[in-house]
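User: Could you go from structure to sequence for me? I need the amino acid at each position, not a summary. Structure tokens:
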């Protein structure tokens, strides 16, 4: 069994810049079937009442929704940075749990490079799934075997109207 950590805003904005949107249910099924991901965590910067339906839908299709702890002043900012939370949960799983094989990351954010390099060295990393082709240049140092572009599976996971 494997675990996925998803920077949800990065997933949304990354595919949107390429002109498409990932269907969360199809992506969840793909992650389960292709990579044996039994737990998939979606990280959000801040909760917003208008997105309550989205949060519920994600939980219904099998995601574990995580929200950044914040105060009122932070909630008014445009973006809720989830990088530290995602890294913390990944490291906590690595240290505290022995019931999984690999960690997968869905994001194009270069801030996860050190985590990924560490997980590769520990032989506990699966893949990084990039929402678009504009990945951080840091990831050029990572072997291609660890890299998947969601655009290559767009036909399987695209949201269709």
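Assistant: Here is the amino acid at each position, in order:
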């Amino acid at each position: 069994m494997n675990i996925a950590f998803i920077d949800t805003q990065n997933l949304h904005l990354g595919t949107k810049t390429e002109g498409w949107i990932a269907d969360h249910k199809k992506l969840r099924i793909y992650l389960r079937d292709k990579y044996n991901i039994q737990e998939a965590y979606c990280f959000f910067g801040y909760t917003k009442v208008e997105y309550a339906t989205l949060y519920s839908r994600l939980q219904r299709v099998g995601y574990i929704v995580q929200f950044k702890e914040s105060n009122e002043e932070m909630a008014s900012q445009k973006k809720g940075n989830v990088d530290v939370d995602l890294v913390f949960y990944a490291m906590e799983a690595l240290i505290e749990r022995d019931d999984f094989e690999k960690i997968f990351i869905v994001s194009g954010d270069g801030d996860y490079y050190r985590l990924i390099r560490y997980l590769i060295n520990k032989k506990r990393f699966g893949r990084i799934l990039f929402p678009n082709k504009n990945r951080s240049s840091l990831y050029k140092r990572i072997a291609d075997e660890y890299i998947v572009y969601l655009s290559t599976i767009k036909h399987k996971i695209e949201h269709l109207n």
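One structural detail worth keeping in mind: The chain is about 40% helix and 20% strand.
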